[in-house]
Specification:
Shape: rod-shaped
Order of helices and strands: HHH
Strand content: under 5%
Largest sheet: none
Number of domains: 1
Helix content: over 70%
Structural class: mainly alpha
Amino acid sequence: MLDILRKSLHFGIGAISMTREKAEQLVQEAVKKGEINSDEAKGLADQLVKKGEEERHHLTTTVKQEVKQMREEIGFVSQEKFKQLEERVLKMEQQLETMK
């Protein structure tokens, strides 16, 4: 399940990046056609890059929240919590051995 979520996240980020690249290409074409000047193109390209980064951040945050919620609903424990439990069990085993 987590693998599917990771692939979805990578696909989403890839789609955002591809859109940004396509937008930059369209800006260059607009400059060649004389529809906008070079200064406007730089500003527009910068805005598109910024918007792409914001969208990527939003997507990443959303996916992390969804995964966290799913883990809580299903009842998965974190690696940190699992290690803590392992350590507790090991200590209890050692105490049992010393009691024998």
